[in-house]
């Protein structure tokens, strides 16, 4: 069960979320999405095109970061809109730990239609990886 609209105020922070993105996640996402770009699986190729190594798919990072909102609402259907700009890549090491992405969010506005705007921040090694990330949610 998620939060109720009557209990929410502008400035409220959502419970933080820590994500681990591993190479196994990249393989699963590539298979599901059809995005087989070698920057997401070949170290040699990724470095050859100027990246720091294999990087997570932007859409995977975006989708995983949305969990902060869906877990808070308790209902993925409560998220009416969600959008981000991709700021910087998330390099994923070839180990069992993967990349650690810290996600935080805050209620920033009550809109005229009774929905709430929630700004989301996702950071890897202290640097933002998603820009302008926000969701519009309708709470019971």
Describe this structure in words.
The chain is of the alpha+beta class and 140 residues long. The chain has a domain at 5-20 and 57-137: Hotdog Thioesterase (Thiol Ester Dehydrase, Chain A, Roll), CATH 3.10.129.10. Helix content is 23%, strand content 31%. It contains four helices and six strands; from the N terminus they run βααααβββββ. Strands 1, 2, 3, 4, 5 and 6 form a six-stranded antiparallel β-sheet that branches. A hairpin with a 5-residue loop joins strand 3 (99-110) and strand 4 (116-124). The chain is elongated, with a radius of gyration of 16 Å. The relative contact order is 0.25. Belongs to the enoyl-CoA hydratase/isomerase family. It comes from Saccharothrix violaceirubra.
Name its key features.
single chain; 140 residues; alpha+beta; Thiol Ester Dehydrase, Chain A; six-stranded antiparallel sheet; 23% helix; 31% strand; elongated
Brief synopsis:
The chain has 140 residues and is an alpha+beta fold. The chain contains 4 helices and 6 strands; from the N terminus they run βααααβββββ.
CATH class of the domain at 5-20 and 57-137: Alpha Beta
Order of helices and strands: EHHHHEEEEE
Give the tally of β-strands: 6
- Biggest pleated-sheet summary: 6 strands, antiparallel
* CATH fold description of the domain at 5-20 and 57-137: Thiol Ester Dehydrase, Chain A
What class do helices, strands and sheet pairing give?
Answer: alpha+beta
The shape is: elongated
Distance between the termini: 11 Å
Fourth-tier CATH superfamily name of the domain at 5-20 and 57-137: Hotdog Thioesterase
Strand content: 25-35%
- Poorly predicted regions are none
Estimate percent helicity.
Answer: 10-25%
Whole-number mean pLDDT: 96
| Estimated radius of gyration | 16 Å
Total of helices: 4
Query: What would you say the CATH architecture of the domain at 5-20 and 57-137 is?
Result: Roll
Domain MaoC-like: 18-107
GO biological process, one term: fatty acid biosynthetic process
Pfam family, one: MaoC_dehydratas
GO molecular function: fatty acid synthase activity
